Amino acid sequence: MDRWLKNPWFIRVLALILALLLYASVNLDETTTETGSILPEGNKELTSMNNIPLQVYMNDEKYVIEGVPQNVTVTVEGPNSEVTKTVRQKNFDVYVDLENLEPGTHTVPIEHRGISNQLSVYMQPEEVEVTIEEKSQASFNVDIDFVNRGSMEEGFEVGDPKVEPANVQVTGSKTEVAKVSLVKAIVNLSGASEDISIKDAPVKVYDQQGNELNVFVEPNTVQVDAPIVPPSTEVSLDIQTKGDLPEGLSIESITANPEKVNVFGPSDTLGDISVIDGITVDLSTISEDTTLDVDVPVPENATKVEPGSVKVKVDVEETAEKTVNDVNLEVRNLSENQNITFLDPESKSVNLTIQGTKQELEAIEKDQFEAYVNAEDAEAEEAELPIEVKGPDNVKWNMSTEKARVRIE
Fold first, then answer.
1. pLDDT tens, residue by residue, 96-141
2. CA 268 to each of CA 153, 193, 235, 301: distance values in angstroms, whole numbers, following the listed order
3. Against a cut of 0.90, is the pTM above it?
4. Looking at the record's lineage, which domain of life comes first (predicted)?
5. C-alpha closest to that of 84 among 122, 46, 54, 36
6. Buried b (16+ CB within 10 A) or exposed e, 89-119
């Protein structure tokens, strides 16, 4: 051993080995200090994670904020194993802390926790400008905004809608809530031909200019039910009678409630319907003022009538009489070369005993009646011709004579 130490070449080789070990030791310490790992630079990795939710810590019972993005991009750099674990598990939080800030506009950094300290972390964006305002809440009625009315099937219309709930709570900053002018549920009528029932019609909030506001709505959807009404037309009712009232009674009035009904059906059918007939009241069953429930017939080719029944009120009163004298007898269908002479009645007139209600009789005048004989089939010389009388429909009458004796030459 002493002999080696005395050999200068041995000393030189030993010095070289010690120098190399010292060099390697110094460089290893620097690498460990900078990277936290003794792995060489080739094992580092850099990965970005998009759409990482951004948490907000604040007093959300008192304040609302604007300007905070929902998501950010987080980039991590470091050892492959740590990057892989972080990207796979995403077991970390990204947040802004607004707990101790007052209302106003602030620029705050985006922070993180739960990421290994072996990784370098980069945020995009690194900070955000937020506006903090005091929270406000108000209740509003929900109107219905029917869109695409022109795209409904031809002739169909939308009836009165029902909304549940009828009111919603709008929450936001005092500034935004003060702007609220309209709260609407949107309903699309395109192609609608049947009743609408929508469980989740979206609710939108607008200012006076029609701009949608950035507020929170609870609930943000509502139930909307709306009838879709097919084409219709309103028509009157023609009420007929059959039979006779008991002796001594006259009809004061016959009225229907309602007086008109709606008829539904194809548009080309409705154009031909102006009145509904076929409603008949049997007077022989009535002895006093009576109200009847009467079904309304559906016209041919129509689909339905609303209402399907009406109340027909028949008012009666005791019969009164009035005499109308000297109603002139006309002659109809007499040939041009013939002359006629009245033998009986010589006055060429007839007297009428009018029966009806007192009110009806007060309005009766002689010129409302036409009395005549028809000479079309009468033979020459003397003949008896029936006397015909036309007058108001609401009264009855008896004639002083029912035939006229005439001479035709």
1. 999 888 889 999 999 999 999 999 999 999 999 999 988 888 999 9
2. 15, 17, 15, 10
3. no
4. Bacteria
5. 46
6. eeebebbbebeebeeeebebebeeeebbebb
